Amino acid sequence: MNRPTLSPRILTPVAMIAAAAAARLLPHPPNVTPLAAIALFSGACLPGRRRPFVIPLAALFLSDLVIGLHDQMPVVYGSFALIVLLGRLLRARRRALPIAAATLCGSVLFFAATNFGVWAFGSLYPRTFEGLLACYIAALPFFGRTLLGDTFFSAALFGGLALAERISPARPTGARETSL
Question: How is residue 24 annotated by DSSP?
Answer without folding.
Answer: T
